[in-house]
């Protein structure tokens, strides 16, 4: 879907509310070409990247 055939997927551990809901998966996509703002005080995602996910 994204056209990226080189970047390998990464999985990390952690707790989410998904465990409290049946058939739910916590998912957070991040593209390797962007600066990572994951879990920072000004966390954001570009709308174009969100649409690719």
Structural summary, described in words:
The chain has 53 residues and is mostly loops. The protein has a domain at 14-34 and 42-52. The protein is 11% helix and 0% strand. It is built from one helix and no strands. The chain has one helix at 47-52. The model has no long low-confidence stretch (mean pLDDT 77).
Overall form: globular
Number of helices: 1
Please report the total strand number as a whole number.
Answer: 0
Order of helices and strands: H
Q: Tell me about the biggest sheet? A: none
Question: C-alpha Rg, in Å?
Answer: 13 Å
Low-pLDDT runs of 5+ residues are: none
Mean pLDDT comes to 77
Distance between the termini: 8 Å
Beta-strand fraction estimate? under 5%
Residue share in helix: 10-25%
- Helix vs. strand class: little secondary structure
Protein name: Xaa-His dipeptidase
Organism: Spiroplasma phoeniceum P40
Summarize the structure.
With 53 residues, the chain is largely without helices or strands.
SSE layout:
Layout: H1 47-52
What brief labels describe this structure?
11% helix, globular, Xaa-His dipeptidase
